[in-house]
Amino acid sequence: MGKGGTVHRVYSVVVFVILAALDNVAIGIVPPLYGSIGADLGVGEGHIALATTMMFLISAVAAIGFAYVGDRTDRKPVLIAGTTIWVIGTAWSGLAGGYPSFLAAQVVAAFGLGGVASVSFAVVSDLISPRRRGLVMSFWGLSQGVGTLAGTLVGGILGHQDWREPFLVTAGAGVVATVAYLFTYNVPRGDSQPELAGVDYDERIHHEDLPVILKRRTNIWLILQGGTAQIAFGSLVWLPILFRARAEDQGYSTGTAVLVGSIFATVFQLGAALSILGGLAGDRLQRRTPRGRALVAAVGVLAAVPFYVVLFFVPMEITVTDGAGTGTLIREVLTNVLTEPTVAACLAIAVFALMLTSANSPNWFAMIADVNPPQHRGTVYSLGNLVNGVGRAGGNALVGVAFRGLAGAFPPPLNYAVGLAVFQFFFIPTGIMYWLASRTVAADMADTHTALLAVAAESDERPESDERPDGDVERDPAVGVQGFAGQQDPGAGR
Q1: DSSP letter string, 60-82
Q2: What is the reported pTM?
Q3: Helix/strand/coil percent split, the chain, to 5
Q4: What mean pLDDT do residues 419-423 have?
């Protein structure tokens, strides 16, 4: 495996994608086991849910510190440290003999998880050339969603008889991934940046750089948009409750309704896999205008709102065997997709809506890399991730309050449909912020491009023009400031 060669780089990307998925598996295994863990440790489900809430908040806050250290030092040891910490915390969770020990273990795991996401984002952004960022970032972002879903399945399947097993298995997988990570390419900062081709780029973040980061107005919009977007996304975790209420309204028992709601919600979430199309669209439009990624994200989240609203109110005729086993219900739900027109219509609407909103993620990742120099990317990502976490937690909590308030005026499942529909309108300010980002992104990209070229001009190590660094994968040639400016959209001013 050549050091920094094509194979080594591809291997490195694959390992980072797997690590991103495993991080989210570690988070996703707890919710399905609230009851089992609580019963065994002698506490209520609310105590275990508290551990999950703390995990989200601690990981988001810890990510800022880890990202700053990663932007300032060698990132590989930071990533190894973060992965090792969450593996220890996850294994400890599975071995905990009481609630205080379990809570402490989850805190340790959360601290380590905060270090992995932000630093690995910065590394991946340096592995991929600008014109491919949307596509590769869509895989990286998708792996996180798949990891969360896998965590739910692992928790439910492996933890069905023993809740400790999923934690120990996930920790074991983390050890294997850590060993695999040791052999990844230690990516130099700015390695895929065309302006820095052949340059030994050793810039690091400093504490006085925060005003510089916030001076880039595109960063402000990219950080803030997550607050409203994640309120809407956070409300969607109640989608299984809507489908459960619909099944109960049709006369199915609670046990069957709960399972049917979970199955339908899982099937409908498959539309998120189409985020790859959003990444491709962003890459393609970005070659025509520097506003491309921001416009794709803006159109995606705004266009999705009416589809979500329709989805929540379309009646769904569910035909399954009440009291049947899990396998039978899964087969019958999938059969409903083919035999029940209302179910097929709901699935089509859900997939299309999720496809549109999923255009947000890869283009957000790519834009952070586009407008920031390599030594700032991890920190900007972590700031956005913190706002995302607060928004998601707020959406999840507020929608529950809304459901209870609406129950007096609208009987279930209508109260859930109305509540979810209202919360989707939080996507509107998100779309507006992406449009505002599209107005500033060209100038911010040009400023960063100019700064990187200035660093390159000062370097005594630039090779001759016909030389290229080893291992270059789809790397763009360096362009001058005038050539770059000539590609800008004339209307993309500040």
Answers
A1: HHHHHHHHHHHHHS-HHHHHHHH
A2: 0.80
A3: 80, 0, 20
A4: 90
